[in-house]
Amino acid sequence: MLLLFYCLMVSCSQLIDEPKNLVPKDKMADLVAEFAMNDQLISVNSSAHLEDATRITLQQYKISARAFIDSYKYYTATGDVGKILNNAQEIVLNKDPNAKKYIEKKLKETQGRPAFAR
């Protein structure tokens, strides 16, 4: 009985299967950082289109929207999304040191929420 339970636990250890088009974690962090910076550009230039900026970013990285979505779901299920989002934050800070104040403000506002829900 115990052996059966162990086999069942091992076979169900992953919530979802790894997608065939999995985007590497470092590239995911780069994409998330680009998306965040694009989002801030929209607040400065209201005539800009976030959807177009997102499409262009995905094209630049040669990643399909489906690959990004599948990878994001996978990394969320495996618990790796927090590390990816933290790496994306570091990328943003390296590109724009003034972003630190904004990020600190947002972290105070969203205290207690997991990284992927901020």
Keywords summarizing the entry:
disordered N terminus, 0% strand, mainly alpha, 118 residues
Give the number of DSSP strands.
0
What about the largest sheet? none
Shape: globular
Question: Separation of termini?
Answer: 43 Å
In which range does the helix fraction lie? 55-70%
Q: What is the CA-based Rg, rounded?
A: 18 Å
How would you describe this structure to a colleague?
There is one protein chain. By secondary structure, this protein is mostly helical. It has one domain. The chain is 69% helix and 0% strand. The chain contains 6 helices and no strands. Helix 2 packs antiparallel against helix 3. It is globular. The relative contact order is 0.14. The N terminus is likely disordered.
Write the layout of secondary structure elements.
Elements: H1 2-11, H2 25-44, H3 50-60, H4 65-78, H5 81-95, H6 99-109
Helix pairs in contact: 2-3, 2-5
Provide a concise account of the structure shown.
The chain has 118 residues and is an all-alpha fold.
